[in-house]
Design goal:
five-stranded antiparallel sheet; alpha+beta
């Protein structure tokens, strides 16, 4: 008899638990929507920037994207090739294009990136230098210093996907970036048009020589005064191969899933501050995933890869 009772009561209890859970989530979402709609945009942007500042980033209302802060902690970490090799371990599947050149007695590196960074589609231009005077050293084996304030360059880029411009950025910077939350892209789907304004003709010419060495043709390099423009679609340089296709495919699938979760979970809203504020109230797990961005935001990991040099 007791088995019969459990056969009846068990499913009823289970159904009641499911019903109460759905009811709880429903009211929690309604409450979160009300909170987001009642908050001012300035307050939402301020809260978002406070969360992002820990990782060296900020929100740009102009492009509705996440950008890097000029004085972020990443500036103290410098750059080495290991960072790109370790990118998939930090949820980044991207194309990179390092351009090495000599100028003013230093070896310089200007690198471009585009691809998927966790649940964001993004692009970057980074400027670095190394004081090593020996020309015979492999530039990929060196540790580079991020450009100082007196060495910053004015940079611009536009990112195109399916013949549509999805993001534009420009600034005097050492690390110009832009990341679009909830947008999923394969690196090969993106085309980046970049322009860099150099300090003088000597630096411009040295960079152009670096482009030629990397595999670009002269007709692909646009020069106007000290400004150099190029289109970064298919990489001309050798890409990092530390992680195999299987692992990279897995990370790509997870990134795509994160984007779907983000868009689905924040569907009542359109712009990034509203979406992220709503996630913070309703879905803390997705909120943490988004804030971390899957980018170079883990200082311990970067220090570990840096020590390997």
């Amino acid at each position: 008899m007791k088995y019969v009772c459990w056969a009846v009561i068990g499913p009823a209890v289970f159904a009641a638990v499911i019903f109460l859970s759905v009811l709880f989530v429903h009211f929690r979402k309604r409450r979160a929507q009300k909170k987001v709609r009642n908050e001012s945009m300035d307050r939402k942007i301020s809260s978002l920037n406070q969360a992002l500042s820990v990782f060296g980033f900020a929100y740009s209302e102009k492009c509705d994207c996440i950008i890097s802060d000029r004085n972020s902690w990443q500036r103290d970490m410098g750059y080495c090739r290991r960072y790109d090799e370790a990118a998939p371990a930090m949820n980044m599947i991207m194309d990179c294009e390092p351009i090495y050149f000599w100028y003013d007695g230093k070896r310089w590196l200007l690198e471009l990136w585009k691809g998927q960074y966790g649940c964001t589609t993004g692009a970057e231009i980074g400027l670095y230098y190394n004081n090593e005077e020996k020309h015979d050293k492999n530039p990929e084996e060196l540790l580079y210093t991020c450009a100082d304030d007196c060495k910053l360059l004015y940079m611009q880029f536009a990112v195109w996907k399916d013949r549509k411009c999805i993001m534009e950025r420009s600034s005097l910077h050492w690390w110009l970036t832009g990341f679009l939350p909830g947008v999923y892209s394969k690196p090969e789907d993106l085309v980046m048009r970049a322009c860099i304004f150099f300090r003088d003709s000597a630096m411009r010419n040295a960079f152009c020589e670096g482009l030629l060495e990397a595999g670009y043709r002269r007709e692909e390099i646009g020069v106007d005064g000290n400004r150099v423009c190029l289109t970064f679609g298919r990489p001309r340089t050798k890409q990092p191969t530390r992680f195999g296709r299987l692992y990279r495919g897995y990370i790509s699938c997870m990134n795509r899933l994160y984007c779907k979760w983000y868009l689905s979970a924040s569907a009542p809203f359109e712009n990034t501050p509203d979406r992220i504020s709503y996630l913070g109230y309703c879905f803390p797990f997705l909120y943490r995933k988004l804030i971390r961005l899957g980018m170079r935001c883990n200082r311990k990991k970067l220090e570990k890869y840096r020590r390997r040099k």
